[in-house]
Write a structure and sequence with these properties.
Number of helices: 8
CATH architecture of the largest domain: 2-Layer Sandwich
Distance between the termini: 23 Å
Helix content: 25-40%
Low-confidence stretches: none
Shape: globular
Strand content: 25-35%
Oligomer: single chain
């Protein structure tokens, strides 16, 4: 039987699209499952090893970027698991983090270094991205002169995130926090981009979540993973066309293809993924981990 969660219900706090959260009183236990979401739907299939890739890659980045911004990580050692969870340590190993509790800021902090996805759609209609004017003549996968910070709302489960302007972000969290969210997001993205380029990967865009721990802005959740970012190979990069990817864009592309038979506008749950798409997605996640970290998964 495929595992999807741990067996301990006590302390269960919430279930996100991918993560299960357990409130331990003074800290949280985050468990990254093998679930995958696309277009705000949780798909009916699991992607083998996905939760471990998300966790292990986040741990790599938390360590590498610790001088850029504080993060919420405490431990990923199964010896530190509270007693009720010890029985599930074999399942949890590699896919859990014990983290500090944070007051979460209600915004997704998106940074775009290349024009694609909803950013491209925005540009094609308005000539801007997130309210920021861009030069004429940009195409799919164009590299932006400078990365652009484009926040969105952080919607509750069952609702869609919505892009907001920087002014709206200021109204939501206050001018001082908005500036700190923007500046730290751009700094983390810049550091991540510089590392990944040495490893043969373009980080086209990404999203971060932040909270406040004892009044200090803190990076939370995951960071620079195939779930939260678009990873493209540098080799063969060519503006004007959709790039191959090491992330869940591979799944999105299949869902939007004629082969899937799914109409995104219908509002219906996407169909099951074919076995070969599941395996290729798992392979792409593992490949992203190995290229970025230089370690065998």
């Amino acid at each position: 039987m495929v595992r999807t969660t741990v067996g301990v219900a006590e302390g269960f706090s919430s279930q996100g699209k991918v993560r299960d959260i357990y409130d331990l009183g003074d800290r949280l236990l985050l468990v990254a499952t093998d679930r995958i979401s696309a277009f705000d739907f949780v798909l009916p299939d699991l992607i083998p090893s996905k939760g471990e890739v998300l966790t292990r890659l986040s741990l790599f980045w938390f360590n590498l970027l610790a001088d850029v911004v504080p993060n919420h990580f405490l431990s990923a050692d199964t010896a530190d698991l509270p007693a009720p969870f010890a029985a599930d340590k074999d399942y949890l190993a590699g896919r859990f983090m014990l983290v500090k509790k944070a007051v979460v800021w209600p915004a997704e902090c998106i940074v775009r270094g290349y024009l694609t996805g909803s950013g491209l759609a925005d540009y094609q209609v308005t000539g801007m991205i997130g309210g920021a004017p861009l030069p004429e003549g940009l195409v799919e996968a164009s590299r932006l002169e400078s990365p652009v910070f484009t926040p969105s709302t952080k919607a509750d489960a069952g609702f869609h995130d919505e892009n907001i302007s920087y002014v709206q972000l200021e109204r939501l969290v206050g001018a001082e926090v908005a500036a700190e969210l923007r500046d730290k997001s751009l700094a983390v993205y810049d550091a991540g981009v510089r590392w990944a380029r040495q490893r043969g990967i373009i980080i086209a865009d990404t999203k971060f979540e932040f909270g406040s721990v004892n009044g200090v802005l803190t990076l939370i959740d995951e960071v620079l993973t195939p779930d939260s970012s678009r990873f493209w190979p540098i080799d063969g990069y060519m503006p004007g066309q959709v790039q191959p990817s090491f992330d869940k864009q591979f799944v999105r592309n299949w869902l939007l293809s004629e082969e899937s038979g799914w109409n995104r506008a219908s509002g219906e749950t996407p169909p099951p993924l074919p076995p070969d798409i599941i395996e290729k997605t798992s392979e792409k996640y593992r490949q992203a981990y190995e290229m970025i970290t230089g370690e065998k998964f």
